[in-house]
Amino acid sequence: MRWDNLRSEGPEALFGTDRVTRTFDTPEFRGITFHEVRARSIVNRVPGASKVPFAWTVNPYRGCSHACVYCFARKTHSYLDLDTGLGFDSQIVVKVNAPELLRRELAAPRWQGEHIAMGTNVDCYQRAEGKYALMPRILTALRDCANPFSILTKGTLVLRDLELLRSAAAITEVGVSVSVGFLDQQLWRTVEPGTPAPQRRLDVVRTLAEHGIPCGVLMAPVIPFLGDSPAQLRETVRAVAAAGASSVTPLTLHLRPGAREWFMAWVAQHHPGLVRHYEALYAAGAYAPTWYQRRITGQVHELAAEYGLAPAAPGVARRAAPARESAAARPAERVPVGCEASPEESAYTQMTLL
Description:
alpha/beta; seven-stranded mixed beta sheet; four-stranded mixed beta sheet; 33% helix; disordered N terminus; disordered C terminus
């Protein structure tokens, strides 16, 4: 990409002088362009108005080759003057300095060792991670600082970091969730074309559980008219339970600006007879009506109880180990080597989005 549609002379206007290191295509990732950048910060505060049960996130990538047509994060690409459709799927921003930056920010005096959520915007185990391997160094930094964290992913690559997750779980709270909204193969191939198959994701759940790392399933999204029949819900919950998931939590499809336009274009192409039904169901905004959400949640919770599963408690990280002291609560001499702040890092500044 030449960045010639930006409002200034180049990408440095978005990322700062010397922040963009290179932009290139690579044969083994045909059709994907990587924009390597040096981020200003990596631990981001969640806006106060958000209803999510965590306050801090780390997102080493922007854009996602999983290409889920419903992805709510599509709108974020417009902040960079990048296309929220195919551009979001193929123009991947890589924060190449994320691990080193994270270690410095965790060591800053004002950091209180709070829970950090990953995979909440785009998947940190998307295909790009196979090339850049940022997550092992990110997990190592979190482990070395005994900082609690959680991961949400559709990617099977998380199993590469199994031993790191186990070692981190021995000293801090670690939560892992895998997203599996449905099992229908035809639906998966068209609505989540860049992701591993749902059954492969359930294999991840099974493997993590077998190695002592409880893994919940975010049953998301439950797609109206295409993946929400009682039989489909039962099939999915049954498979989730069989995989050894620690919990299952349903989330119905929501269509924020950016995602809504892309998803509706997909519906018009693949299921034209459903266009007016979606327009009616989402007439009031990004979320399905409360009655619909409650119906799906109720059905899934009943099925979960039938198969011996429980819904994840709101705001509670799924733990892979008993609660330990947070790094912030420990005496200075007990902070692990590698987490001490250098003099130049003592002036901790408010962390903002790239």
